[in-house]
Specification:
The chain is an alpha+beta fold and 236 residues long. It has a single domain, classed as Class II aldolase/adducin N-terminal domain (L-fuculose-1-phosphate Aldolase, 3-Layer(aba) Sandwich). 28% of the residues lie in helices and 19% in strands. It is built from five helices and nine strands, in the order αββββαβαββαββα. It has a nine-stranded mixed β-sheet, with helices on both faces. β7, α4 and β8 form a beta-alpha-beta unit. The structure holds the ligand CSCCC(=O)C(=O)COP(=O)(O)O and zinc ion. The ligand CSCCC(=O)C(=O)COP(=O)(O)O binds next to loops.
Length: 236
């Protein structure tokens, strides 16, 4: 049943409650330039509930009462079949919802979408190989250790390991990225992120802290790669 109230699901004095964490994370991401101009967003899964930020709003101004709540599992399509249990009046759920759900279906506890310029720039430096999808690769940089080996493995990548992040092509509407994002997730079962050419990145993690730090490590590596490229240094 769709409800417009259910305020108790988003009102909490606990700073780690998803409805408090999402606004807090969005404020941090805004300061980093990742979600300016209403772009990007964040979603958290806790038990069988998904908390989602609203669409097309200033992400740094989101309040707990603006948060949508979905019962998980839920159909991704059509949007009218999704099991919303809290829908704030006058707001629309993030257009990233089916992409966030794709990460939750694969065990994630938090999914972040940013429009980081470093992420966009690396997608312009990595070309599509004929017959294969494009992929950002980097190795021999300490910060690679901030990324887990993968969903099917334990521990973090090592200094000499190669980090691979698939790149998918952008589409006119955010929702339409879902098919290619899921294909990339199948082709790279150990990835925790997918870059979207000329758009940004989706990053997910087991919980909000891991998703955030993985997002930070990746952004560091993208910036480094772009700066190395500018200096004429190979980054791989
Ligand atoms: C200028 S933002 C264009 C839409 C977009 O790419 C995006 O990430 C915004 O998603 P929302 O959560 O606001 O629906
Ligand atoms: Zn976007």
């Amino acid at each position: 049943m769709q409800r417009e109230d259910n305020d108790h699901l988003v009102i909490s004095s606990d700073p780690n409650h998803p409805a408090n964490l999402i606004p807090e994370l969005c404020r941090k991401f805004y300061q980093l330039g990742w979600v300016t101009g209403t772009g990007g967003g964040t979603s958290i899964k806790q038990d069988n509930l998904i908390y989602i930020a609203p669409s097309g709003v200033q992400k740094e101004l989101i309040k707990s009462e603006n948060i949508f709540v979905l019962s998980f599992p839920t159909p991704k399509y059509p949007p009218s079949d999704r099991k919303y249990i809290r829908k704030p009046m006058g707001l629309k759920p993030s257009a990233c919802t089916p992409l966030f759900l794709a990460a939750f279906e694969r065990g994630a506890g938090c999914s972040i979408h940013t429009h980081s310029q470093w992420a966009v720039l690396v997608t312009l430096l990595v070309e599509k190989v004929h017959g294969k999808g494009a992929c950002f690769e980097i190795s021999n940089v300490e910060q690679i250790k901030g990324i887990p080996r993968g969903r099917t493995k334990t521990g973090m990548l090592g200094f000499h390991d190669t980090l691979r992040i698939p790149i998918i092509e952008n589409t006119p509407f955010e929702e339409d990225l879902t098919g290619s994002l899921e294909k990339a997730m199948e082709e790279y079962p150990d990835t925790y992120a997918v870059l979207v050419r000329r758009h940004g990145i989706y990053v997910w993690g087991d919980n909000p802290a891991k998703a955030k730090t993985q997002c930070e490590s990746l952004d560091y590596l993208f910036q480094l790669a772009v700066e190395m490229h500018k200096l004429g240094l190979p980054w791989i």
